[in-house]
């Protein structure tokens, strides 16, 4: 399977959400322009096209002019675009956002950024921790590594779609926002990044059949749903029995066993419930 095929058809090629839930038009109202720092995003090829990925918001929000391709707009697929990324990094002073053992607090480079004649690069690597560790090793060791101060990581991550393995870990877009602030970028750069993250989380939740948690108004685009041949996903009704007809247990004792074929052909299915008290099985709607 090619990397590009992951976003073909029913997915938006920019925000990687299903087309009826595309947020690109709303992201245009959350643009931010950095004063000194260009963010270059390196996404592991296994992460590319994933709806829950947050780092893909960076090139859509920061200095987002119309570009001829993703690489020109600061998005590189690792390791496919390694040569193009290396060329980009050699052209300007560069920092790598990576909390390795030899990294320094990003805030310690604030004066260094200010003293540069032109703009500087901040490389954000995106993938699982195992993938990102390998990517960091593959980027020139002479590039200084920086990390976000521990004090900035005390607040809970806004990104609830993936479970963080440690309490002090945040999503890629949150880490980038904190790093930009530490490097001296104004607060009006980080604010739209976090607003965009909330919008993505809510859009993902609605896309999956859940209610939004940050109050974003997410309305599926019926026209785009028709164009891609898929109606917006809606959860099937699963009405739990109110009482067991055999032992009288309440609905809390019922466990769903999923949907099972109603006939040999399998053309119709029905939800099956099991009473935990008496172990009897019942068919539902």
From TrEMBL:
GO terms for biological process: tRNA processing. InterPro entries: DTW, DTWD2/TAPT. Pfam families: DTW. It catalyses: a uridine in tRNA + S-adenosyl-L-methionine = a 3-[(3S)-3-amino-3-carboxypropyl]uridine in tRNA + S-methyl-5'-thioadenosine + H(+). Transmembrane segments: none annotated. GO terms for molecular function: tRNA-uridine aminocarboxypropyltransferase activity. Keywords: S-adenosyl-L-methionine, Transferase, tRNA processing. It comes from the Eukaryota. Residues 8-209 form the DTW domain. The keyword S-adenosyl-L-methionine applies. Its EC number is 2.5.1.25. PANTHER family: TRNA-URIDINE AMINOCARBOXYPROPYLTRANSFERASE 2. Belongs to the TDD superfamily. DTWD2 family. This is tRNA-uridine aminocarboxypropyltransferase.
